[in-house]
Design goal:
Layout: H1 11-21, H2 26-33, H3 42-50, H4 58-70, H5 99-106, H6 118-133, H7 138-146, E1 152-154, H8 156-159, E2 184-186, H9 189-203, H10 219-237, H11 262-276, H12 281-293, H13 320-328, H14 330-351, H15 363-366, H16 371-384, H17 393-412, H18 416-420, E3 423-424, H19 434-440, E4 444-448, E5 453-458, E6 476-479, H20 486-502, H21 527-542, H22 563-576, H23 579-585, H24 590-597, H25 602-619
Parallel strand pairs: 1-2, 3-4
Antiparallel strand pairs: 4-5, 5-6
Helix pairs in contact: 2-3, 12-14, 13-14, 16-17, 17-20, 22-23, 23-24
Length: about 625
């Protein structure tokens, strides 16, 4: 009927428009596109025309494709106008997997997955599992395999996790049979009391009279040390006949006093080397922990010789003669371990390999001429797939959160902890004082009347490297630029989307909150859930999927929030060649950037030098 039209934004308006172009009713359209034997009710088409429903199933999406062909429209024309284009199609069948796993995979499968051959389906599933879900790096494959063989001793009273009934009792007679355990068990009370004393020694403001120390553990360091000691005790306790191939030390014989023997540390680092296939710097760090425990004058283990009374011989590890020798000369044993561990560190450092390359997942971005611009493509992809907030308020809120995760991560360059714990002060409210934020060791995003913009204020004590020369005791303050409509996105998130995510649950006060559901009413992120939230954003919007056409960057792999710091540092290094300027972007020192963060490729250095030299020829 006509060939020129104004393209409408909504699906219903577009469908009605093109029905009118060809003077067809939904009844005639149904008769033209539904094949004999297919069960597709014309009432469904009627509901689309009237705006009561929208296509969601794989069958409905196939009918949309037929309509596009019939009306000579671009492939995907109608799907791009659906109110929730980011929604995975329903009805995708993946045989042999539980329903929850199928829902997780549905996002990454093409709409015509069911109609493809079994060979193609297997190829697609293998690609999704290896690249999108697991990450496809050598380290991720090792990690996935290692997680199947769990081993550790937990310290519930220190980590807040519930103790299991098996070893929660003060009785130790029942622990004799624990030598052959495989998995994760709770520590016996005596071992818990030892670690509790070590944590108190390293975290209290003032040391007890008569004791000395160097350095203090913060909350994150404490959690890390507890985990690492738990893994070491777990390896020692695991059965040598099981898949973990531990040493089989009975739990009732466990004590930090065992760490005085060099052979215990040698066994552990060699056990880790056998599991992984090579040494890493992780073993060096553990040996440095041993050195710190027995350091002259300040080592915690050195200052507790009474622990020698808890030593017992362990077959193949600690002899009765060695126990007696240590009890007779505790200080000498500490000196010997300190020298031994120092020598081992040097030996392992010579052969240590990097297993987890933090740059590997984001290499396509780091190799781009403008890494930040490349990473911003993820944010653009998120906006492209945002749903109609009126019809899908929670889905729209999750997309808004995903977008701001990427944008604030790129603008601020904060570590995961600081970004996760960032508090929010809505516009028009009184912001928290610097003293209040220092007490909480958190930052805040708030409206600045002086600068007429959203600012992020973080006291220096909230940072991991609070005593770095970068801060010099002063807080971090940055007024966010109103680029790409950032202020509108922040205002909409605070005023509408954040409330939709909270869903009536208690407000933790942080800027980023989880989607609160019936089975979980805690809206605050922790270290693991925030990492998984970021990783999910990259899986959905960052990793290019050749089977669905979604995803912003080819070759990108799933990663966590810390990689944004690498992107920022590398971007500035590529454009300035200055480690100092790169350090400003990630609140660190030039030395640390040069050592860890900047992947400054040789060809970029040569190109930068060539630009300067070429000016001579241009002038001539």
């Amino acid at each position: 009927m006509f060939t020129d039209w104004v393209d409408p934004p909504s699906f219903r308006e577009a469908l009605v428009l093109h029905l009118g172009r060809f003077s067809e009713s939904y009844y005639q359209l149904h008769r033209s596109i539904v094949r004999p034997g297919e069960k597709f009710d014309r009432a469904t088409l009627q509901s689309w025309v009237e705006g009561r429903r929208t296509p969601q199933s794989t069958t409905s999406l196939e009918l949309l494709t037929r309509i596009e062909r019939r009306y000579d429209l671009p492939l995907g024309y109608f799907k791009s106008k659906l109110p929730n284009p980011a929604r995975a199609a329903s009805g995708l069948l993946v045989k042999g997997l539980p329903r929850a796993e199928q829902r997780r995979l549905a996002w990454h499968l093409p709409d015509d997955f069911n109609s493809r051959s079994l060979k193609e389906q297997k190829e697609i599933l293998d690609w999704v599992q290896n690249v999108v879900i697991s990450g496809a790096t050598e380290y991720r494959r090792f990690q996935a395999q290692a997680m199947k063989l769990r081993y550790a001793i937990r310290f519930p009273s220190l980590t807040g996790k519930q103790m299991t009934a098996s070893v929660a009792s003060d009785e130790t007679d029942d622990l004799d049979d624990q030598a052959d355990h495989i998995g994760v068990v709770d520590a016996p009370p005596r071992l818990v009391s030892e670690l509790t004393e070590l944590v108190r020694f390293k975290t209290t403001t003032l040391t007890d009279i008569g004791f000395q120390r160097i350095g203090v553990w913060n909350e994150e360091t404490t959690a890390q040390k507890i985990e690492h000691f738990g893994l070491m005790f777990g390896a020692l306790a695991a059965s040598p006949r099981g898949a973990v191939h531990g040493h089989g030390v009975p739990l009732k014989d466990m004590s930090f006093a065992m760490f005085i023997f060099p052979r215990v540390w040698d066994w552990y680092v060699q056990w880790r080397e056998r599991r992984r296939g090579f040494f890493t710097r992780w073993e060096c760090d553990m040996l440095r922990n041993a050195m710190a425990l027995v350091r002259s004058e300040t080592g915690w283990l050195r200052q507790h010789p009474e622990l020698a009374s808890r030593l017992v011989p362990v077959e193949g590890l600690i002899s009765a003669e060695e126990v007696e020798a240590v009890r007779g000369d505790w200080q000498g044993a500490c000196d010997f371990l300190h020298a031994h561990a120092g020598a081992r560190v040097k030996e392992i450092e010579r052969v240590a390999r990097i297993h987890r390359d933090p740059f590997e997942p984001i290499l396509p971005i780091l190799e781009a001429s403008s890494p930040v611009a490349e990473y911003l493509k993820i944010a653009d992809e998120i906006l492209k797939l945002r749903p109609d907030a009126r019809r899908f308020p929670r889905a729209a809120a999750e997309v808004a959160r995903s977008y701001l995760l990427i944008r604030l991560g790129l603008h601020l360059g904060l570590r995961q902890k600081n970004l996760r714990q960032l508090m929010v002060c809505p516009r028009g409210h009184l912001p928290r004082s610097e003293r209040q934020l220092e007490a909480q060791k958190r930052g805040e995003i708030r409206w600045s009347e002086r600068d007429h913009g959203w600012e992020v204020f973080v006291p220096a004590v909230a940072f991991k490297n609070a005593h770095s020369s970068f801060f010099a005791g002063k807080p971090f303050r940055l007024v966010l630029p109103d680029l790409g409509g950032l202020y509108d996105h922040i205002s909409a998130y605070i005023e509408r989307h954040r409330l939709a995510l909270l869903n009536g649950a208690e407000d933790p006060g942080t800027f980023f909150v989880k989607t609160v559901k019936r089975n979980s009413r805690d809206a605050s992120y922790n270290q693991n859930t925030f990492y998984e939230a970021w990783r999910l954003v990259i899986q959905r919007y960052g990793v290019f999927n050749p089977y669905t056409g979604r995803g912003a960057i080819k070759g990108l792999l799933p990663h966590g929030p810390h990689n944004v710091r690498d992107v920022l540092a590398t971007h500035i290094l590529k454009h300035t060649g200055s480690y100092e300027q790169a350090s400003y972007a990630i609140q660190d020192t030039p030395e640390m950037v040069a050592k860890h963060y900047g992947r400054f490729l040789p060809q970029d250095k040569a190109a930068m030098a060539a630009q300067i030299l070429n000016r001579v020829w241009e002038a001539a």
